[in-house]
Amino acid sequence: MPLNNIKDLKLAVLIDADNVPYSNVKGMMEEIAKLGTPTTKRIYADWTKPNANGWKGVLLEHAITPIQQYSYTVGKNSSDSALIIDAMDLLYSGKLDGFCIVSSDSDFTRLAIRLRESGMKVIGIGEKKTPSSFIVACDRFIYIEVLDGATQKKKKPKVTAADKKPIEKPAEKALHKVDKQTIELIEATIEDIEDDDGWAFLGDVGNLIVKKKPEFDPRNYGYSKLTPMLKSLTDILEIDERESDKKGIKHVYVRLRLN
Questions:
Q1: What's the CATH code, domain 10-146?
Q2: Do 103 and 85 form a contact (C-beta atoms < 8 A)?
């Protein structure tokens, strides 16, 4: 899906370790590299706790700076305030184009809003349990579960010989199961930017959908990109691939199928 010309963004990546499994960091950093250049990478946690032990190798591998934040109160995430303070300091440094906040915590909603008010691009990354208030406060929100190498926090049930059946891959299971609300969003977006003949450039469609719904991602529906996702909706859409000035590169246009 088009990324709205943000590949050259200088990004500060701020990670709330209390809300992210260390096994998912590799996939997250690869995703962030597609969106911009992470010039600052910091992760916040109480590193004196035993559950922080698994992070050491991951931080060294990805050159992420750990920030110590002691837990002053039992049951309270102490990393929030430290991350927010650092974000504001980085904002006023004037050296960044955007922020990537990695957390599933709604406490960062106001921070995301404040950063956008200052002209920053804000990309959120978190689990599907993330409250919608934080999701919509970002320019774009990416679910950890759809990233390469993402691990799930679910225990696998025991399977007996009688229960063994062909395993359906997640992508195959989700294929062609685009919900009605998303289809209506796609249709409305095409109508918003279509030309006199009803055609809309696919890149513009993708960008506008993300502006309307920051968490939209074809991978949520089992598709690697927007093009194959829309090609699967042949009952409502027409696709036209047009030659461009560059050899081997085609521009894709889409319009609502005429009844």
A1: 3.40.50.1010
A2: no
